[in-house]
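Q: Got a minute? One more chain.
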Amino acid sequence: MSVKFITSIYSDLHGTEFGGRPGRLGHYRNSLLSLLKMTDADFLCYTSDREIESLKNFFYNENSVSSEKLKFQVYDIGNTKFKDLINQYKNIEQTKQGDRCIEVQYSKFHFWWNEDKSYDYYYWIDAGLSHCGLFANKYLGKDNYYRQMFECSLFNNQMLSNLIKKTGDKFLILGKDNQRHFWSGTVNPKWYNQYDSSIHVVGGIFGGHRDKWENIVNLFEGYVKNIIEEDKTIPHEENVMSLMYFNNQELFEILKFDHWWCRDNAPREIPDSFFLNYTSFNKLFEELNEIYE
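A: Always. Here it is, folded:
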């Protein structure tokens, strides 16, 4: 069974017309290095012509990663599918100070059209997903002070195997409780068949069998186009994904969690009972590491 993860690294966008998180160069690289412990999968990373040679040097030369397991491809995010529509309504000055890039968000789905569908399963994964803000200290690296913030042992082939099993014949997504532990607003309620904002779908990892992707991407792109044209707003990809889930629940397998914290990175005033009563993001990945007969 063949598996491919698709991701991207654009670490120099903060302060530009695209927007993005500042100071993420080392974060994204070391996190992706951790994700590569899922050696039963291949990886494709989209990036800019400004970063590609530096990325190849970091992974191939400095860390001896196989160029067969991790490939890089230049993609100009200034030329995305909905660029003309986005540019009609984007506030450039506000975007320069923002920490999210809408072009990268939408490309998580648009990249599918570049695939030859030769793998059985495809998953999007954020390159920066592996970090100490999400996972317990006991799973983090111990060898290098900087790298230990991004090295997480929960990303491995056991986790990958269980991810595929959990996916089954659906399209797998992760959903955070948005009712008891509010995280985000959503798109205009008029777009819902029956309005429900109790779950916020997150865009860090999602996917499924190759046969499921085209329908999901068409759904996403259809909603994006209609919402931007009619509401004259540019919704984050996660808000569109949440809408997709509630309007088409039969298509999805959802792994739910309640909050982002684990005990190690939570505010001290939060009682231990909180972590017993509610499921953390870290707990989801612990469960994906369980060995089943």
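A: The radius of gyration is 19 Å.
Q: Perfect, thanks.
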